[in-house]
Amino acid sequence: MEKTDDSIKEIIQKAKEGNQIAFSTLLDTFWNDVYGFQILRTKNENDAEDITIRTFSRAFDKIDTYDETYEFKTWLITISKNLHVDLLRKRKRSLMNEMDSRGDEVKKVLDETPTVEDRLITEQNLAHLLQDIKKLKPHYQKVINLRYFQEMSYADIAKELNEPVNNVKVKLLRAKKLLAEIIKKK
Fold it and tell me: GO terms for biological process (predicted)?
């Protein structure tokens, strides 16, 4: 179903007011445009999908800053392009650092078996993390539980929640951001 400019503006306005259905509609309407743009740029499905998810997350977080004199699709593509450039810069820095550190590296075989202290710290951290997760809204708790504790795929989570896969990805991204904010406040 092709949406008119006026209906898109109405949906954007509803999204600015916090309407979750409006966010889902925008995601469904523009997902293929942003994902297609990234596939052409990255030539990698995983990177394209990751950048597309982050694009919508950033756009939805900053929807109040959207200027309606520009097309919404153009705004999304600009965000997407900037995220891709950031990713490339980060990878380049990481690669350069890795090359520098390997120049003088002496190969060592490490015993990576966790010590008793390591296991205790891990258990304590997990207990704190579970307490923080319980502070989230139930639908965010559920998506985190399904993904990270039950290790379900996005497709399986989508079936379980009876939602589109794209919505699950964005919901999971939002849940992680909210969880990070809770942890930072400590």
Answer: DNA-templated transcription initiation
Q: 154: number of CA atoms within 13 Å, CB side?
A: 13
Please state which CATH number belongs to domain 5-102. Answer: 1.10.1740.10
Domain 116-185 CATH (choose: 1.10.10.10, 2.40.50.140, 3.20.20.80, 3.40.109.30): 1.10.10.10
Residue 43 structure tokens: 């030539």
Q: What amino acid occupies position 100? A: D
Q: How crowded is residue 28: how many other Cβ atoms within 10 Å of its Cβ?
A: 14
Gap between the Cα atoms of 101 and 15, Å rounded: 47
C-alpha–C-alpha distance, residues 15 and 1, integer Å:
19
Look up residue 41 and give its amino acid.
R
**Of 79, 35, 75, 84, which is closest to residue 58 (Cα–Cα)?**
79
**From the CB of residue 94, how many other CB atoms can be counted at a distance below 10 Å?**
10
pLDDT per residue as tens digits for the range 20-59:
889 889 999 999 999 999 999 999 888 899 999 999 999 9
Tokens coding 124: 């304590």
What predicted TM-score, i.e. pTM, was given to this entire model? 0.58
Lowest mean pLDDT among 68-82, 85-99, 162-176: 85-99
